[in-house]
Design brief:
about 450 residues, three-stranded antiparallel sheet, 15 helices, binds 2-acetamido-2-deoxy-beta-D-glucopyranose, Glyco_trans_29, transferase, Sialyltransferase-like protein 2, transmembrane helix, membrane
Length: about 450
């Protein structure tokens, strides 16, 4: 009996070992798919422009290549004094940050063709959208029993849930995203900011009394949880009362009540969530993501991105708890050197500053295609514009008629995607999209 059992155990163990060898073997084989020479050159060309771009524009930052053609490290000068301590570990922030350029170029370029506002169309099209997803966007949604009572869930979301997206990719030309950094008080950017087609602000950022520095115009405002709960106060910040409010967390009963009863006439929407790994998850990055999904070009003001960080101050209040300032600065520099944004700061105050060594559109496109292959993204390198769609849903589109009133860039893009609306799917393997196409 004993021997039999032992034999069984041995057989099982060797089975497990064989399986492990198989898994490890297969996954290492698949780690770096074979690239064509063209793909490899595209990534090398991106790396080399990128590194030159960081040295030429980063005010002391230097980029060097990492262990493969995707990896890059951005370093601060060694005499930089790190000030910010991680509250959990008590450790000072380091002076060196690793980034995966392939990941960044593939994910951010996808944002430019995506819709980042939550719609009813999205929830309806998502498999089990109401049961698995909708309740997560409602504060205390866990008590809603997976939206068993759909009427109730719908009721809670209805005030912030448009049927279809209110904005299209490329709808606006030049957009400015305004952070809340105290650095804004060093330069009178007000007039310049008002010259943009769209201005996107964050949380409780005041305009009145600061217009010389931050401008008057305000088109959108991205709100975190705390600001969204004070919606009544937030709407007072913009005198025109036309600002569109975009909440990055959940809808809250308090918010619903305010919208109904005060009443708040500004449009209010929820933002779809996509994940950009460990990089700053603050309102600033969300605002950039939203801007990139609706604008041709995105300029950034009021982020703490110059050398000499001492403490985090906001332009309208005393110093507060900041977070990962050095990491943030490198991340935004990476975004600039991938052609996603242009940084404006006290030390880079010339509106017409040219970002030197910016990789060309063609290099970015080729590098994006190569990156999709490396990362095994859904529809990698597919010629089909709907190749990245993990879910395709045919819908009767009520609004496609109104498209003709839009700019050429919108119409051309819509023609390219055959009228599809593309939503990034959160945590979807291979970063697939949910695509709603005209029936
Ligand atoms: C579902 O919610 C609606 C709206 O609150 C309510 O009127 C209805 O009674 C609920 N239905 C059930 C079966 O609980
Ligand atoms: C602007 O300044 C005036 C006068 O000091 C003050 O009453 C008002 O509350 C300020 N507005 C904001 C939004 O801070
Ligand atoms: C986004 O759309 C443009 C056309 O407007 C297309 O050229 C580009 O390849 C698309 N990008 C992605 C990541 O699908």
């Amino acid at each position: 009996m004993k021997i039999l059992k032992l034999g069984l155990l041995l057989a099982l163990a060797s089975g497990v070992v064989a399986l492990l060898i198989y898994i490890v073997g297969v996954s290492s084989l698949y780690q770096f798919p074979r690239l064509s020479d063209e793909d490899f050159e595209a990534l090398q060309s991106l790396q080399s422009s990128f590194q030159k771009c960081v040295s030429a524009n980063g005010l002391g930052l230097q980029a060097s290549s990492g262990k493969d053609v995707c990896q890059v490290t951005i370093n601060f000068p060694s005499n930089t004094v790190s000030k910010w301590k991680d509250p959990k570990t008590g450790e000072l922030e380091g002076l060196s940050f690793d980034f995966n350029l392939c990941e960044a170029v593939a994910t951010w370029e996808q944002v430019r063709n995506s819709t980042t506002i939550l719609t009813k169309e999205f929830i309806d099209a998502l498999p089990n959208g109401w049961e698995d997803y909708a309740w997560r966007r409602i504060n205390k949604g866990i008590l809603l029993n997976n939206c068993k009572n759909r009427t109730l869930c719908m009721e809670k979301l209805s005030l912030v849930l448009p049927e279809i997206p209110p904005y299209y990719p490329r709808q606006f030309d030049r957009c400015a995203v305004i952070g809340n950094s105290g650095d804004l008080l060093k330069t009178k950017f007000g007039k310049e900011i008002d010259g943009y087609d769209v201005v996107i602000r964050e949380n409780g950022a005041p305009i009145q009394n600061y217009t010389d520095f931050v401008g008057r115009k305000s088109t959108f405002r991205l709100l975190n949880r705390g600001s969204a709960k004070a919606l009544d106060k937030v709407v007072e910040l913009d005198e025109t009362r036309k600002e569109v409010l975009i909440v990055k967390t959940t809808i809250h009963d308090i918010m619903n009540k305010m919208i109904r009863e005060i009443p708040i006439k500004n449009p209010v929407y929820l933002m779809l969530g996509t994940s950009f790994g460990s990089a700053a998850k603050g309102t600033g990055l969300k605002a950039l993501e939203f801007a990139l999904s609706i604008c041709e070009s995105v300029d950034m003001y009021g982020f703490t991105v110059d050398p000499g960080y001492k403490e985090w101050t906001r332009y309208f209040s005393e110093s507060r708890k900041g977070h990962t300032p050095l990491h943030g600065r490198t991340y935004y520099q990476m975004m600039e050197c991938l052609g996603l944004i242009k940084i404006h700061s006290p030390m880079r105050a010339d509106l017409n500053r040219v970002v030197k060594w910016l990789p060309s559109r063609e290099t970015i496109r080729a590098a994006r295609v190569a990156s999709e292959k490396i990362l095994r993204r859904v529809g990698a390198a597919s010629a089909d514009p709907l190749g990245a769609c993990a879910i395709i849903k045919k819908q009767v589109k009520k609004s496609s008629v109104s498209l003709s009133s839009h700019k050429r860039a919108v119409i051309e893009h819509q023609r390219y995607v055959r009228g599809a609306t593309m939503y990034p799917l959160e945590r979807s393997p291979g970063h697939g999209l949910l695509c709603s196409v005209p029936a």
